[in-house]
Amino acid sequence: MAEHEEVYDDARADRLAEMLRALAERIRELDRSGQLLRGVPELLRLMGDARSEMFHYEVRSTYDTPEVADSRRIVDEAQRQDTFHPDDPEDDEPWRQQRPE
Fold first, then answer.
1. Which residues are within 8 A (CB) of 46 and not within 5 positions of it... i.e. 6 or more apart?
2. pLDDT digits 0-9 by tens, 40-63
3. Total structural domains within the chain
């Protein structure tokens, strides 16, 4: 799963549950067909994907909720310095150095 935002919502948790169910079903399919051990490379890949997402689920308390992430974005945008300086001359002289603030 390539989702690495700082948000862990219910939809992402549902995708993890579905991923685990799919892994369990694939193990059952391979076992029923007598191919369980031949399926080890595929199972290792599936388990690696699930393990990575389970880690994100386990540490989800460190993630922002969607509302907090949006609030954080708004605050970050507001804190960015504006390049407009009311004391700058309006004479279009780009070679002039800006005065230190």
1. 22, 23, 26
2. 999 999 999 999 999 988 888 777
3. 1
